[in-house]
Amino acid sequence: MLGPWLIPVTILVPLVGALLLMIPAYRKNISVVRTTTGAFVAATGLLVVAVAMLGEAECEFLEILPDMPVFFRSDRTSVWFSVLTVAMWMCSTVFSFEYMKYEKREERYCVFSLLALTALMGVCFSGNLITTYLFYEIMTFASFPLVLHEQTKEAVSAGLTYLYYSLAGAFLGLVGIFFLYRYAAPRTVSGGLLAYAAGGFLRTDLTDSERSLLTVVIFLMLIGLGSKVGLYPLHGWLPKAHPVAPAPASALLSGNITKMGILFTVRILFFTVGPDFLRGSWAQYALLGLSLLTVFLGSMLAYREKVFKKRLAYSTVSQTSYVLTGLYLLAPVAAVGALLHVVFHSIIKNLLFLCAGAVIYKTGRTKVEQLKGIGLIMPVTMVCFTVGGLALVGIPPFAGFISKWYLAAGALDTDTGVLRFLVPVILIISALLTAGYLLTVSADAFFVPRKEGEAEEEKREEPAKGPEVSLKMLIPLVLLSAAALAFGLFPGVLTDFLNGIMDVVF
Question: Where do the structural domains in the chain lie, given as residue ranges?
Answer without folding.
Answer: 279-451+461-506
